[in-house]
Prior knowledge:
- The protein is an all-alpha fold.
- The chain is built from two helices and no strands.
- The relative contact order is 0.15.
Amino acid sequence: MNNISNYNFLKSKTFWTIIFLFAFNGFSAISTQVPANVVLVVDAVFSTLATVFHISGVNSAVSATLQGGHPLSGQ
C-alpha cells in the first residue's frame, strides 16, 4: 500500500510551527503590545524553523521511499 496514506498532519512539526506563527501574528495584530521589532524576529525564527522541519520531513520521506525500492508519485 502507499506510505502517504499513513501521514497525519496533526503530528507534523511544520504544521504546528505555522499554526503558532499564525496565532502569534494574529495576537500581535489585534493587540498593540508587541513591538514591531519583536514580531519581525519571531516571524524570522519560526519561518526558518518551519522551513527546516519541512525539508527534514521531505528528506525522511525520500529516504524511506528509496529503502522500499520504488518511488512514490511526485518523487
